[in-house]
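Hey,
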Amino acid sequence: MRTGSVQPKLIIHGGAGSSLKGKEGAEAVRRSLFTVVEQVYDLLLSGLDAKSAVIRGCQMLEDDPRFNAGTGSVLQSDGQIRMSASLMDGTTQRFSGIINASRLKNPIELAEFLQNSDDRVLSDIGALELMRELQVPYYDPSTKLRLQEWILEREGNFDKAMAGVVAEQELVSEAGRGTIGVVVLDSQGRLAAGTSTGGKGFERIGRVSDSAMPAGNYANAHAAISCTGIGEHIIEECLATRIVIRVTDGMSLPSAFEKSFWEAESRNRDFGAIGIDATGTIAWGKTSQVLLAAYHDGERMGDTLNMGVEMGTQAQLSHAHQL
């Protein structure tokens, strides 16, 4: 980790999936992502540390019903919402998370509390008990659109293409991939990553998401990664940790993305990831058609929304910026 003042960097994502349709839909997502990037980056410029910036970004994305995390989470097979989230501080290399938590507004806040706990990952009952201990008010994260999706699915009339990684009719993709994530390099060279999700939708009760595992969210002093897409694929590749370890062992972040996504493509994986390393390099990769991500490179904001499969040779599965 470097000391002294460095240029902060930030990248966030709001899911990955099969397609984006319509300029209006893309612009709606872009506005949501840019609002978060702009506000969090201003906080970083004012001296906010990486972990706190990640928490703030995740809170904002969880509060946006467009994404499948917090408010607007998809429903599981029994009609209940169970959310998972994790937070990793790259400086301390400390991981914390919750699995299948219900009736709360911001899952990332429980993960934040657990950073300083002896027991740093809690499942459903444990998360509920922690909420009671902290006097976290109960909250209903459901939305009318997500409930309608579940009813149609249960009746066997649900077209997966109409659910969306985001709750926006102009956007078409597969249900349940609107996981959100935030990766930050702060002005002191510290890295952190956070990831939050409502799951994949209509899943078996008790299914565990990659978002609450180091497979989907990982950071150390060298790099920080957040993943999105089909959780089982992310777990099987141990994607976030794999990329971070490769950077730690001396590979550049762009090369670590390229190698990891080339391997994943050969196994027909379907996911995306975002990351930053200690030098300030911002990178993202995808095997899915669309990655809903936006970033601030220290000079300007940008996004990945218009980067479709027509760009996707194996060598171009990973897009990276040396900043």
